[in-house]
Amino acid sequence: xxxxxxxxxxxxxxxxxxxxxxxxxxxxxxxxxxxxxxxxxxxxxxxxxxxxxxxxxxxxxxxxxxxxxxxxxxxxxxxxxxxxxxxxxxxxxxxxxxxxxxxxxxxxxxxxxxxxxxxxxxxxxxxxxxxxxxxxxxxxxxxxxxxxxxxxxxxxxxxxxxxxxxxxxxxxxxxxxxxxxxxxxxxxxxxxxxxxxxxxxxxxxxxxxxxxxxxxxxxxxxxxxxxxxxxxxxxxxxxxxxxxxxxxxxxxxxxxxxxxxxxxxxxxxxxxxxxxxxxxxxxxxxxxxxxxxxxxxxxxxxxxxxxxxxxxxxxxxxxxxxxxxxxxxxxxxxxxxxxxxxxxxxxxxxxxxxxxxxxxxxxxxxxxxxxxxxxxxxxxxxxxxxxxxxxxxxxxxxxxxxxxxxxxx
Length: 409
Known about the structure:
Elements: H1 13-16, E1 19-20, E2 26-28, H2 35-42, H3 66-69, H4 76-79, E3 106-110, E4 115-123, E5 126-134, H5 136-146, E6 150-157, H6 159-172, E7 175-180, E8 186-191, E9 198-201, H7 210-227, E10 229-232, H8 244-255, E11 259-262, H9 266-275, E12 277-283, H10 284-289, H11 299-311, E13 314-320, E14 326-330, E15 333-338, H12 350-363, H13 368-382, H14 393-400, E16 404-407
Parallel strand pairs: 3-6, 3-10, 4-8, 6-7, 10-11, 11-12, 12-13
Antiparallel strand pairs: 1-2, 2-5, 4-5, 8-9, 13-14, 14-15, 15-16
Helix pairs in contact: 5-12, 8-9, 12-13, 13-14
């Protein structure tokens, strides 16, 4: 059957988003009423009171404690790793004076661009077309929001695709601080009816102009000062902005008291390391691409590469290894975190889920061992889902109890 294409304009957004499902995916399907999407808009929360005592906090009447929401607190097996019982120290803006009430972390995400993703899938009821805001920054912001943080995404937007991306992000409850750009926001169309991703349309992103980049830099710096935690994203960003932007931004963020996490590699990672990082998350594939390890590198070689990155400017280095688990190098000690092996539906987005969980953990001043468990569980659960960088917080909390963390001898 020949495939038909249609151009989606900004005026078509309400109709295009008419089928918001319970799992947060936006889909168009025959017979799905628009009222689901309208109801989703009504769920967007009111603003929170701000507290500069180490981070952001919600008013008690706006964000009740976990007991009042009916969610279980972590059991004693998790709390045993906290504070003095753990050999790991807590990181983050509240590390010295952690708030133990109903704290709500806020996470700033720097993204040099986002995508509008259109995915065609075949399900028993019939073909479905899913619309999402995508790209590394959007995926990290989405997962941080799913984990209970208030995400603030700093990114440029432009053209009809930019209007669609903003509507999608707003509907998910992600706060957007956008810079208007002349170039259109990128988009792709993937066909997954065969069970594999078949790229139909996937144009590249346009470079950011000087004025756009200056405005994005200023907005990000201001938001990060308020949130206390900033994630630097930008997979493939070398064609969009100068790599040295990450050096300046990392340095200036830390100079103003923000904790900085980077999920980068290549020239962008090298520049960010020169500026200084609290945490660098990188995968074994990225280490190999950057020439830091050989193909199929063993654990000892990966730890040595992480130590090299530490020496270049990262306080902590997290190496994701897919099903082999995660390595963490903290000061002079290395640790491995291994999650239960779950059946993978789509492995894309698992690393971004980990990064988001690390940012939320940093904002919540989790001890590093608890943060490793939390991030590993978030990445593991993501592979069981069709949506990129998605997850269910109560399940992630429970799954984190099954993550084994041990020292690397």
